[in-house]
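Need residues for this backbone.
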């Protein structure tokens, strides 16, 4: 049965791989220059005007069918070492919105311009560079054609490049110098794909050079235009970067009765070696991730593990090549399984030492991408972990216009002698095949996959299969998704919170564009999903009717009415408070209402709020979560995140309140000196967490960090553990 489903899914999704090409802007011509380019925000070099400019922008918001009223011009030139980009953003006012001076800002709610570069013209992967009128920079990596801004936009990526901005009388201007060694491209290429978009708070518009339909993401790569180089691009000069680090730390674990603090010193580093303009080798020895922020805690009333994203720099470039197989909840490789364990007493992540690692990734040509990763962890007696070796191999082949076929092999293996009663196995392996669909006009997109697990015992039903297919037109959208997970599928280096089920269901949406004074666009949606557990039957069912709206002031709103059926296979306490658990082997049917409102982000004060009310299991649940934000432009942001749930079940089951609050202060003293401080109180796990991180970027991609972390019991504020870490990193090009 599973083979039939896989075959039908593959045939169906292949059928939709062809689509008519989209209309494009006339191509841009970039001419080569020997003239020095001075980055000062003043476009006074003749080289900027030697080629053709990207102008005649389209509106994206509030409409997508008109040429932009505000003028924007983008200019290109290049030499053997750098790609240069400049822009003039015309404006009659200077009341620009700049939330902070912190790098890697998000575009919404402020003035900025963003450039998207797709060097292999595959309209699947791209580099992003952007700035605002104050010259604050941002960069990111795009993957999967940028179908989902949360999963396909990676702004944790960092690299060496320069840029600046300057405010003039009738416009603001920016100039960038991006080393070709920072980009990945094919030697001898004469054409890339490109797009540029601008957010302007003076006119409350979002404009873009190559037109994108309003029901698609503004950064979607299906709609990029052509950037032509006057001469073929030469191979970039050999690039070897060494990124050493030094750390010193003090820590004390009061829960373990530690009377005096431990002091530590560590050293290690990474290396990035460009084997070709499109293929990179990353090496790491004794890596340290102490500058990474603590995860934002959440109240969890679900039965399954919560996903937290990867933020560690070593794993980020080409992360989609390794980490996007399957789905977000059926993922055979999740890099956070390497080098990170979890302290069950606090819910916080703790380091699991990595001895060394290597990763080869990139493009072989326009059609082939490859990735190979190997990492070795140390034996960790404190956490009862043997030494493990992790190997991941991935390959991806482009097919049709924007689709691809990928294969992955994941191997976790220990060469240590395991005790007969050990909970660990000698190896755990997964072999997978994915087909990712994205038509030329992005109306059709989706994927189908089949993954097979292997373990020493060799039981059957170690498989995972799924398909998702979506169609989105201007007026409506349709979708179908199903998954089938075998009861013995257990990818230990992946993220699969649930197994042994078959689930599936359709969804549909209608889109409306009233062009009124209040609502810009809205939609009505219906979604149905059902899950069957072998031997038991239908154990989960979900029916949702929703309404979504985007307002002319950029505020957003969602209203959803959901009927849910859950058959518990075992006892479960949703409060995790030690109350009498709900009895297993019993079904619960309940209906609830959810509302979400995101205010206009342009004013100094903004907020989002999400109340939920209705039935829950055999009782009721009421809750609200969201945040309040105030910016003191341009030096920072004060935010208060909150989450409150009241579970009201009949006695003897839980009747309790769950509360989480997290104030955060983000101060940017300058463009290179930042202080982030936040406190998290979570009474579900009886924990108060304090985290403060001072970052000084004293040179490009070179930082000094001072990180302080404290955990207390929420009931009496007695200390659990405490640590302070100082870390110095330096990016050295050889």
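Answer:
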């Amino acid at each position: 049965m599973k083979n039939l489903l896989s075959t039908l899914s593959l045939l169906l999704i292949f059928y939709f791989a062809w689509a008519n090409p989209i209309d494009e802007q006339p191509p841009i011509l970039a001419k080569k220059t020997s003239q020095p380019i001075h980055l000062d925000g003043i476009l006074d070099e003749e080289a900027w005007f030697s080629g053709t400019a990207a102008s005649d922008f389209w509106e994206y918001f509030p409409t997508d069918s008109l040429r932009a009223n505000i003028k924007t011009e983008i200019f290109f030139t290049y030499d053997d070492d750098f790609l240069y980009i400049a822009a003039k953003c015309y404006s009659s006012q200077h009341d620009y919105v700049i939330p902070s001076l912190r790098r890697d800002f998000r575009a919404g709610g402020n003035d900025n311009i963003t450039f998207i570069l797709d060097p292999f013209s595959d309209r699947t992967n791209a580099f992003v560079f952007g700035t605002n009128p104050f010259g604050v920079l941002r960069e990111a990596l795009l993957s999967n054609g940028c179908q989902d801004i949360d999963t396909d936009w990676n702004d944790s990526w960092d690299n060496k490049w320069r840029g600046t901005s300057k405010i003039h009388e009738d416009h603001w201007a920016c100039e960038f110098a991006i080393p070709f060694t920072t980009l990945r491209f094919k030697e001898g290429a004469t054409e890339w794909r490109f797009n540029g978009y601008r957010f302007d708070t003076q006119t409350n518009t979002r404009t873009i050079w190559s037109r994108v339909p309003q029901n698609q993401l503004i950064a979607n790569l299906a709609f990029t235009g052509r950037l032509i180089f006057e001469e073929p691009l030469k191979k970039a000069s050999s690039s070897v970067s060494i990124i050493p680090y030094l750390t010193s730390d003090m820590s004390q674990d009061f829960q373990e009765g530690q009377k005096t603090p431990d002091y530590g010193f560590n050293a290690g580093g990474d290396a990035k070696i460009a084997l070709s303009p499109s293929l990179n080798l990353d090496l790491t020895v004794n890596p340290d991730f102490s500058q990474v922020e603590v995860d934002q805690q959440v109240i969890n009333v679900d039965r399954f593990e919560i996903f937290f994203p990867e933020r560690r720099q070593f794993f980020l470039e080409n992360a989609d090549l390794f980490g996007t197989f399957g789905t977000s909840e059926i993922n055979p490789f999740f890099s956070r399984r390497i080098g990170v364990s979890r302290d069950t007493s606090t819910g916080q992540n703790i380091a699991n030492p990595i001895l060394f690692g290597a990763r080869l990734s990139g493009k072989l040509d326009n059609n082939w991408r490859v990735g190979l990763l190997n990492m070795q962890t140390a034996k960790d007696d404190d956490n009862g972990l043997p030494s493990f070796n992790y190997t991941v191999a991935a390959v991806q082949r482009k097919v049709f216009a924007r689709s691809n076929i990928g294969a992955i092999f994941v191997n976790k293996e220990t060469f240590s002698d395991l005790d007969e009663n050990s909970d660990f196995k000698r190896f755990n392996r997964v072999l997978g095949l994915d087909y990712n669909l994205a038509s030329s006009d992005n109306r059709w997109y989706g994927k189908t996959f089949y993954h097979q697990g292997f373990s020493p015992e060799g039981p059957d039903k170690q498989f995972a299969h799924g398909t998702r297919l979506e169609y989105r037109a201007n007026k409506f959208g349709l979708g179908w998704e199903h998954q089938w997970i075998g009861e013995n599928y257990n990818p230990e280096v992946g993220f699969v919170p649930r197994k042994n089920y078959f689930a599936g269901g359709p969804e549909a949406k209608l889109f409306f564009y009233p062009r009124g004074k209040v609502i810009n666009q809205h939609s009505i949606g219906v979604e149905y999903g059902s899950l069957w557990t072998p031997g038991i039957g239908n154990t989960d069912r979900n029916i949702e009717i929703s309404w979504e709206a985007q307002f002319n002031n950029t505020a957003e709103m969602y209203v959803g009415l959901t009927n849910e059926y859950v058959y518990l296979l075992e006892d479960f306490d949703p409060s995790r408070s030690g109350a009498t658990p709900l009895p297993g082997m019993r079904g619960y049917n309940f209906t609830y209402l959810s509302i979400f409102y995101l205010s206009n982000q342009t004013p100094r004060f903004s907020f989002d709020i999400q109340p939920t009310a209705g039935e829950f299991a055999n009782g009721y649940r009421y809750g609200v979560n969201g945040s309040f934000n105030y910016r003191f432009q341009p030096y920072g942001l004060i935010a208060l995140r909150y989450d409150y749930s009241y579970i009201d079940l009949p006695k003897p089951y839980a009747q309790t309140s769950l509360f989480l609050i997290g104030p955060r202060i983000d101060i940017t003293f300058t463009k290179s000196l930042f202080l982030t401080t936040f406190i998290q109180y979570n009474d579900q796990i009886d924990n108060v967490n304090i985290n403060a991180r001072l970052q000084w970027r004293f040179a490009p991609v070179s930082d000094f960090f001072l990180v302080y972390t404290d955990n207390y019991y929420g009931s009496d504020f007695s200390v659990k553990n405490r640590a302070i870490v100082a870390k110095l990193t330096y990016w050295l090009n050889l």
